[in-house]
């Protein structure tokens, strides 16, 4: 009955199973590639160490108001296809505050929320053009001084007295008249 056993005996007389799988072959995609280690701490081999290059930033010439304005005009030219961005920044005044900071003057604070989606695009262009990697902008509301109109009789009198001081002496002469 020993002949009916499907498992052949090896030299050391322990039975081995017949494998129905094909012999393991390395995948063609992974041939010659280093294998990843499965440990939590990985120490690289000495030949994996790369020399450290000089990582000091290259000092570009300092940013000036004139250079910033030329880069701003180049930005306007590059975004003419995007009508919304072009309309937002077209007539805005920019002012260099520091070597890394400039102000964009807008008529009201709502422009800050309108400029937020374009902040990365604006800064990317200006940083590449100027060579200043740390360049930032700040939105500043520029209030236009409006002339206040005089509506009440007392406001009208104060306005007239500021233009003509002799009106005050006239008021002292005639205290009964309401101005």
Describe the 3D structure.
The protein has 179 residues and is of the alpha+beta class. 6% of the residues are buried. Helix 1 (65-78) packs across helix 4. Helices cover 32% and strands 10% of the residues. The protein is elongated. The protein contains 6 helices and 3 strands, in the order ααββααβαα. A 3-stranded mixed β-sheet has the order 1-2-3, covered by helices on one side.
Question: Which helices and strands appear, and what pairs or packs with what?
Answer:
Elements: H1 65-78, H2 83-89, E1 93-98, E2 101-106, H3 110-115, H4 119-130, E3 136-141, H5 153-163, H6 166-173
Helix pairs in contact: 1-4
**Alpha-carbon Rg, integer:** 40 Å
Strand count: 3
CATH architecture of the domain at 65-141: 2-Layer Sandwich
The computed structural class is: alpha+beta
Q: What's the helix-strand series?
A: HHEEHHEHH
Shape: elongated
CATH class of the domain at 65-141, named: Alpha Beta
Helix content: 25-40%
Strands of the biggest beta sheet: in what spatial order? 1-2-3
Arithmetic mean pLDDT: 77
Terminal Cα span: 134 Å
Keywords:
about 180 residues; alpha+beta; GMP Synthetase, Chain A, domain 3; three-stranded mixed beta sheet; 3 strands
């Amino acid at each position: 009955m020993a002949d009916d056993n499907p498992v052949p005996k090896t030299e050391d007389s322990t039975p081995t199973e017949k494998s129905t799988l094909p012999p393991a072959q390395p995948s063609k995609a992974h041939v010659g590639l280093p294998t990843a280690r499965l440990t939590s701490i990985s120490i690289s081999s000495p030949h994996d160490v790369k020399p450290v290059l000089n990582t000091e930033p290259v000092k570009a010439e300092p940013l000036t108001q004139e250079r910033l304005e030329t880069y701003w005009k180049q930005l306007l030219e590059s975004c003419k296809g995007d009508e919304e961005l072009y309309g937002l920044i077209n007539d805005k005044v920019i002012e260099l505050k520091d070597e890394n900071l400039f102000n964009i003057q807008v008529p009201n604070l709502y422009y800050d929320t309108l400029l937020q989606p374009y902040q990365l695009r604006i800064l990317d262009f200006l940083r590449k053009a100027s060579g200043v990697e740390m360049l930032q902008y700040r939105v500043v509301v520029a209030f236009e001084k409006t002339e206040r109109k005089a509506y009440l009789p007392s406001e009208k009198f104060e306005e007239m007295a500021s233009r003509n001081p002799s009106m005050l002496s006239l008021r002292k002469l005639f205290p009964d008249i309401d101005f």
